[in-house]
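seq:
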Amino acid sequence: MNLAEAIERAIGEPALRLTRLGGGCVGDVARADLASGRRVVVKSGDAASGLEVEGDMLRHLGANGLPVPAVLHGEPGLLVMEYVETSDGIDGTVEEHAADLLAALHGVEGTAYGFAHDTVIAQLPQPNAESADWRGFFRDQRLMAMVQSAEAAGRLPSRMRGRIEKLAGRLDEWITDPGPPSLIHGDMWGGNVLTLDGRVAAFIDPAIYHADAEIELAFATLFNTFGDRFFDRYREHRPLKPGFFEERRDLYNLYPLLVHVRLFGGHYVDSVDRTLERFGC
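struct:
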């Protein structure tokens, strides 16, 4: 079955034209122009790509007030979503709107860190066994789980495992008062923020779980997604605890750096090395 046939089977409308879109870290991404005149976005991949999980994550975020594309169909290997119109990039007005939206999302609290089921970040498994201990969760299910995955893929030098284990054993030196289990988007870089007319039109490609919300804020600085306008507005809703910018931001960004090591290797290994040196490991 080709992609056009799969779309018609999934949503009951034939696709007249398919246009390849960029940004497909998980499978292929295309815009489909349907016979009815509407457009949808289609992600396709193999059965292990986690696209049905992505659909579930989008639905969960949407049910909790975050603007996301409506999911029309999700199954292993195929995800069909509404097409979201976009215009400009991220400016100061968008940053303020994003701060309003993410502060509200972070106010959605869970009973434990983690989630009811495992999720994915890009195509990588993201274990979420629920725990009342944030430091233990971050150590075992984020840092060390991704270390194991990156090392098994041959992307992380084995000599670095001991250094990361050393840092992971000292988390209580820096994470002394973790926040409550907040729902987070989980992959907050600029490519996942769609904008239209100075507003956030939608967030895409989530990696959700309940976490210390600071890990989301840290990720938002890793690739310069948001800056001062975002944080000034965010503080109006949720104050930041002392030490975030000085220490915990770099500590929490070790996880997305390890994700990038697992996916791409290369200079991201050097970034991990610099973070470990920063914390004396």
